[in-house]
Design brief:
This protein is mostly helical and 327 residues long. It is 56% helix and 4% strand. The relative contact order is 0.11. It comes from Gryllotalpicola daejeonensis.
């Protein structure tokens, strides 16, 4: 596993370089035991500090640090398999834990809790999904509404989506949810590309492979460039405008922990050119997408293999989380 070591770095140092260096050494003390157990240790400062230096910043107390330190850890966590949270007060480390939990990866509080990779691993069981249902639930009895859902899939795509087999339990609820999403975003004036950025940013933060792949494919077409969805899905946001990057950052905040947002976060959206009505519309749209993802993920919906095979390589490789495709 790639394990992020999280703990105090700048917290409680009042900007004292020696105290920060001591904290970094304490974080690094956990690196060898993790490596010895067969894993790869990672510390955010190992990446963030060289980035700051290359940007011409004077160090972790430079104003530019706010744009590098936390975002570096957030991006690293999209690739990490676990977090080791060391003791000590640290807002950044607490944020790392929150992201890890939102992605569903383990959080350890002691090196002794980390499994030894050299120990014999149990044979993994297959995903508990039925071939006919593509989720934890079997297909429900066919109703006229469910048949209409299937017929639409067959007409549009040539196969019935696993999501449709799941939502066949309540096709009317799915339609009402989609209608709400449309109503929420209709007055925002956002383009299809911008909507795709919101969905892929939120879905990747949730660890939702289904919507990440589906909307990653859509965004590749909207942007006419598969590198754009890959950048949003992995959190680098390369190729986005400043306004689009602000949208993506907000969607991730809402998906990760809506109680962590601040007036300053909203102000950044205003500075990016969004008015208050648009900010509300964006937030309502993302929240409804999260609701949809929550049902799909909780009930084990797996991406459709025949669809995933048609996606650009950049999109498929970016989605290395969540439930694996079926078929």
């Amino acid at each position: 596993m790639l394990i992020l070591i999280a703990g105090p770095y700048a917290s409680g140092t009042n900007g004292d370089p020696e105290l920060m260096a001591q904290n970094l050494r304490r974080l690094e003390e956990a690196a060898w035991p993790i490596f010895r157990a067969g894993h790869v240790p990672m510390i955010g400062e190992w990446v963030a500090l060289p980035v700051l230096s290359s940007a011409g910043a004077s160090g972790p107390t430079d104003p530019l640090a706010a744009e590098v330190m936390y975002p570096t850890a957030e991006r690293l966590l999209q690739h990490c398999d676990a977090v080791l949270r060391l003791t000590g007060e640290s807002r950044g480390a607490d944020q790392d834990v929150a992201i890890a939990r939102s992605r569903g990866i383990p959080v350890y509080y002691s090196i002794d809790e980390i499994p030894d990779a050299s120990a014999e691993a149990p044979v993994p069981e297959d995903e508990p999904a039925l071939e006919s249902g593509g989720s934890f639930l079997p297909e429900p009895p066919l109703t006229p509404a469910a048949q209409a859902l299937y017929d639409e899939d067959l007409a549009d795509d040539g196969f019935v989506w696993n999501l449709s087999r799941l939502w066949a339990y309540q096709p009317e609820t799915q339609q009402k949810l989609f209608d709400l999403m449309g109503d929420a975003i209709a007055s925002s004036g956002l383009s299809k590309r911008q909507r795709g950025i919101l969905v892929t940013a939120a879905a990747s933060t949730l660890g939702d492979s289904y919507c990440s792949l589906a909307w990653g494919g859509k965004l590749a077409k909207f942007a006419d460039d598969p590198a754009i969805p890959a950048a949003v899905l992995t959190g680098t946001d390369a190729g986005l405008t400043e306004q689009e990057a602000a949208m993506a950052a907000w969607a991730r905040l809402v998906a990760r922990d809506p109680n962590s947002t601040t007036p300053a976060d909203v102000e950044r959206l205003r500075a990016a050119g969004f008015d208050d009505a648009q900010i509300f519309a964006i937030t309502a749209f993302v929240a409804l997408r999260i609701a949809f993802s929550t049902v799909n993920d909780a009930l084990g919906a797996r991406p459709d293999g025949q669809f995933v095979a048609t996606l650009p390589t950049e999109v498929r490789e970016a989605v290395d989380y969540g439930r694996q495709p079926l078929g």
